[in-house]
Amino acid sequence: NLFSETPSPPGSGEAVLDMRCHCCKMLSSSQICSHFVSRYFVEILKAKGTLRQDIRESIFSSIKSIHLINQTLLTHLELGRFGVGFEEFCTHLQLYNTYVDNIQTAKKVLMVQVKKSKAFRRFKKLQESRPEFNQQKLEDLLTLPLQRIQQYKHFLRDLTENTSPDNPEFQQLSKAVKAVSEVAQRIQDNARNHENHLQLRRVQKQLKGRKTRILTPGRWYIREGWLKTVPPKGTEAKPKMFYLFSDILLQAKPCSPIHPTNGDKFACQQIYPLKECTVDKVFGHTKSQGGLISLTFARAKLLLMSDDQVDINDWYRSLCLAIGQLKSKNTVVHRRDELCRKPIRSDPDSQNTPELQQTRGIKRTMMLDEEVLEHREGQSSSSIPLTGESGHSITKRMKPNEVPAARPQESSGSSCVIL
User: Fold this and answer.
1) Lower CB density within 10 Å: C or N end of the chain?
2) Mean pLDDT, to the nearest integer, of 90-97?
3) pLDDT bucket at 336, cuts 50 / 70 / 90
4) In terms of domains, do 27 and 158 share one?
5) Could you tell me if residue 362 is inside a domain?
6) Which long-range contacts does 15-21 make (Cβ < 8 Å, 24+ apart)?
């Protein structure tokens, strides 16, 4: 039992009771915080008109509606109706989806209003000093609904595992686990996407100029660090800064420290695509210091060295993982394209029509099909028979050594030469 100080045996009535009591306490404390946010921020800001309605909605989104559905859930739980309570609660989970999709916008708008409006800045500081908020900032209070969803997920999972399948609430709790887990996963994905976006922006600001575009949809930041590049002619290895992303490896060098604006930035030297890259460990398998890895691209080869064996091993694993995931993704897309692609013609001999052979520069015609004969008919002064002297069709494929020599009179009287 994860929720009581004196754990009870899993599956026992006491364990379920402990979890239910803990959930009621957790939800009650959550209701108090959301109630205070609605009361001391949303309602007072609306009454005073400190912020416009659209700005208030951008900051607080659906927090009032979330407070109301949690209030209803708490009423059900206090009466012991856990299955019915969470079943009804899950019908309103779209409010959480709206809230999590807006949370980053809410933080940005809040930051702008704090800097822009002196009246709002003073109001925010005054309300945060209330004892009800326990010295928490408004930025922290806005994330509480998302934290509660994560707690609901763990609670429902453990409660379902300790509930007998014969219990009337088992099916309701099982469906609630699935629905709440989907919202919790959406919250985690949103947080990862935001963190990745911040990393991409940070790297973009570190690079000089705007020619190198780092902020690309679908690109994920993996790692960065200093590595030495080993030149092919055996000259001295030079340290370079490398940035590894999900689809590229970027090599950069530091700008001149005396540069007035770019002294703390890097200049991009080369971008290596990982799509067709292979990575090998040249040395560093033993416990000796340092290591060397080889990267082979379609048009380049790169040798990277580090004096720190742990670091070079981490780079090797990161590169292998990124390349493997990228190739796996491309393979799946390629196979789907092949399954969706429809053949132009079902006839396997359609690749040998005279028109297609002429476009490819082939001078000898191995076969004449009926379509070509019909096309030629009426354009030539003499017709071409559909059958030979033996009565067999002339469109039959012949071996090269069986092709008869062309007659002079046939070649002069017809626009089509049969070899």
Assistant:
1) C
2) 95
3) low
4) yes
5) yes
6) 15/162, 16/159, 16/162, 16/163, 19/155, 19/158, 19/159, 19/162, 20/77, 20/80, 20/82, 20/159
